[in-house]
Amino acid sequence: MAISVEQTRSLLNAAQAAAENAYAPYSDFPVGAALLTTSGVLFTGVNVENASFGLTLCAERTAVVKAVSEGHRDFQAIAVWASRRPHGSVTPCGACRQVLAEFLSPHTPVILTDESNGQLRILSMAELLPEAFGPAFQR
Q1: Which of 40, 52, 54, 101 has its CA 20 to 30 A from that of 5?
Q2: Under the phi-then-psi rule, with left for phi > 0, alpha for psi from -120 to 50, and beta for the rest, what region is 131?
């Protein structure tokens, strides 16, 4: 599904604004995500860390859980933004990729940006997680 330049910028801005609410006392690495439904509803999420690191929630999964808990299951795009990226643009972790594959189609845009140079990266869900295990990826 195509997404306009205006929608891309809007999603990145929403993800950046959301990151201000992240709870990241251990990593000092706030992340925000903005998930757009096909009906135009926007859900944001942030990473919420925990002293028991395995219980930490990433921004992407937070956004998905908020949307699904409100009855939304069809998504147009997601943007992920992080304030500090020592290695360029941040991409969703493996757990987030699997959760996204459960709800996003293989063609859904995943919008990332490299803070150091401002360049956008837009990957499809299939590029982010090739040969995924999930409903939309089954043959």
Answers
A1: 101
A2: left
